[in-house]
Specification:
This protein has 93 residues and is mainly beta. Helices cover 9% and strands 34% of the residues. The chain is built from one helix and eight strands, in the order βαβββββββ. Bound molecules: zinc ion. Zinc ion binds next to loops.
């Protein structure tokens, strides 16, 4: 395996690759929904966040400052969602 770092963009997937998991968690399509980075205030659709899936779970980072916006870890019993990097998440009704 090649040497990797967390921010190696060659390992990056488009966040749309995680659309299925986000749909499973929230029950609505999330990739077109806006969110705001708690670090730099960048507002962007979730589908434009930088998705890293090589670690334990999925990390979605701000495309402007690379702050971790969302972290999702799945265990056999539960899904853990760490959203402290987002000012808000919007779920369409
Ligand atoms: Zn940011």
């Amino acid at each position: 395996m090649e040497e990797t770092t967390d921010l190696n963009r060659e390992l990056m997937l488009d966040a749309n690759a995680t659309a299925g998991l986000l749909f499973e968690i929230f029950g609505v399509e999330m990739t077109a929904e806006p969110t705001e980075c708690a670090n730099c205030g960048n507002e962007a659709e979730i589908g434009t966040l930088l998705a890293f899936t090589r670690g334990p779970g999925i990390v979605l980072r701000c495309s402007a400052c690379e702050n971790v916006v969302l972290r999702i870890v799945q265990t056999p019993d539960a899904i853990y969602l760490d959203a402290r990097g987002a000012v808000y998440l919007r779920l369409a009704r």
